[in-house]
Amino acid sequence: MASSTLPLFPKLLQNETADVCVVGSGIAGLTTAYLLARDGYSVIVLDDGPLVSGETERTTAHLTHALDSRFFELERLHGEKGARIAAESHSAAIEKIEEIVKRENIGCDYQRLDGYLFCPPGESTQILEREMAAAHRAGLDAVEMVSRAPVGSFDTGPALRFPRQAQFHPLKYLAALTIAFQRQGGRIFTNTHVTGVEGGEPARVETKGGYVVNAKALVMATNTPVNDRLIIHTKQAAYRTYVIGATVPAGSVPKGLYWDTADPYHYVRVQPLDRGDVLIIGGEDHKTGQANDADARYLRLEQWARARFPMIEAIPHRWSGQVMEPVDGLAFIGRNPMDQENVYLITGHSGNGMTYGTLAGMLISDLIAGRENRWAALYDPTRKTLGAAKEFAAQNLNVAARYLENVTGGIPQDPSTLLPGTGAVIRRGLKKAAVYRDDAGELHEFSAVCPHLSCLLSWNAAEKSWDCPCHGSRFDRHGHVLNGPAISDLED
User: Residue 8's pLDDT is what?
Assistant: First the structure.
């Protein structure tokens, strides 16, 4: 469903004061705001674009405690207690969504269903056995091995069944959640670009146009934090993930959540529509700004899907999204490191953004209200996970290698050779330029250096955007910032 189904809100046009200012209107931001408003706090939500115009709009909406980071891996990194809390918190997030759906009488296609994890053909199922044992230790006693997932069109082989997972239509849910938030006195300002953030008494959020929000507490729920220059960005990496939506006859694919253990892995679910169903298939991830072959990735997704679901009629939908992958497998939710005590952040959702966003709202609202929350230490952004040292080093070596492109990157190309609708990073002596030729033939030129931390950008032909391969900032073809951590446009 397009974001046009969501309510429209005014731009911030005067200085405002609130108990809490939430930056970001995705599921993490709106859930946090809604729960705080129910607690009696005055809350303002700011968003750079229209409501839910970021990554929540691009989700495939799996509601699951079967995490992308396997439980045996979480157990290695965070101990048996940590894996148990991860399972508990994601299960609680599903329960919270169900509770809100019932309380607010939200029609969003919410339903409970089973999830199935299976291996690619011919691969050992040992990973399933390890995961089942770890899931049981994490308190998920109902997880069981079955002979196959209940898909008649292909034999998955042995699969782990995770009972009582769920799915919903995220935009229908968030539209209703927004109305409920406003009913409790909450205020939302969209198309409001944040230009500066400062913690303290009070916390201060500056916006383009010079207007300011002062608040007792500030929550950064922007997928990746735009108020943190470096610390969190050394502990996670941005990935693009690709999705296709295929039309299939109603009921031809059993409703369920389906995931495989391939590398890159695939994830599948069925979205019922008025006429037939849409089979949603995702995967083919790569680091943001480090590949420019989206058409090939969409084709591989289609080939994978058609080989397993021959009832596919057409594939009218395709899109990509951005996920933040933490080096130790868990999101960062809590007080912002090396900042004032009243600044909080939510990031590192990996591929489980709907449950992470919900449990983040539960955790952050507890922290602001001064309530004890047993999940806080596990998701603390200041944590140091010794078992993830290798992953941490690999991530930051990858970033260091990208900075070498500042010296060697770009091609000494004549911009006149660019075709309409294409872009390229062009070397001009020691400088690099991001050059785009629009459909009318006019050239647009900007600095090819990301304003966040000066990494050299890459051209994304599929999205027609400039993507940062270091920390995931993205800019549209005309240099306007789309994704943080950068908060300013490309220089002319």
Answer: 63
Same domain, 163 and 248: yes
DSSP-derived 3-state class of residue 437: strand
341, 361, 388 - which closes a domain:
388
In a domain, 397, yes or no: no
CB-based contacts of 99: which residues, under 8 Å, 6+ apart? none
Question: What does the alpha-carbon distance between residue 22 and residue 3 come to, in Å, rounded to a whole number?
Answer: 20
Domain count, the chain: 3
Whether 429 and 477 map to the same domain: the answer is: yes
Q: What is the DSSP letter of 234?
A: G
Kindly report the CATH number assigned to the domain that includes residue 418. Answer: 2.102.10.10
**Cα dist from 385 to 77, 306, 327, 403, whole Å:** 7, 41, 9, 26
Q: What is the CATH number of the domain that holds 299?
A: 3.30.9.10
Q: Which amino acid is at 444?
A: H
Q: Can you tell me the distance from the alpha carbon of 72 to that of 70, in angstroms, rounded to the nearest whole number?
A: 5
What pLDDT is stored for residue 1 in this prediction?
37
Residues 264-307 have pLDDT tens digits of 899 999 999 878 899 999 999 999 999 999 999 999 999 999 99
Question: 3-state secondary structure string, 4-60?
Answer: HHCCCCCCCCCCEEEEEEEECCCHHHHHHHHHHHHCCCCEEEECCCCCCCCHHHHCC
Give the max Cα distance, the chain: 63
Instruction: In whole angstroms, give the CA distance from residue 78 to residue 137.
Output: 13
Termini Cα distance of the chain: 36
Q: Quick one: pLDDT at residue 2?
A: 40
pLDDT for position 3: 43
Residues near 446 by beta carbon (within 8 Å), at least 6 away in sequence:
433, 434, 466, 479, 490, 491, 492
Do 426 and 469 fall into the same domain? yes
| pLDDT lower than 70: segments of the chain | 1-8, 406-407, 409-413
Between CA 267 and CA 120 the distance in angstroms is: 12
Quick one: 280 and 413 in the same domain? Answer: no
Examine residue 156 and state whether it is found in any structural domain, yes or no.
yes
- What pLDDT does 352 receive? 93
Query: Would you state the structure tokens that stand for residue 312, as one six-digit string?
Result: 């596919």
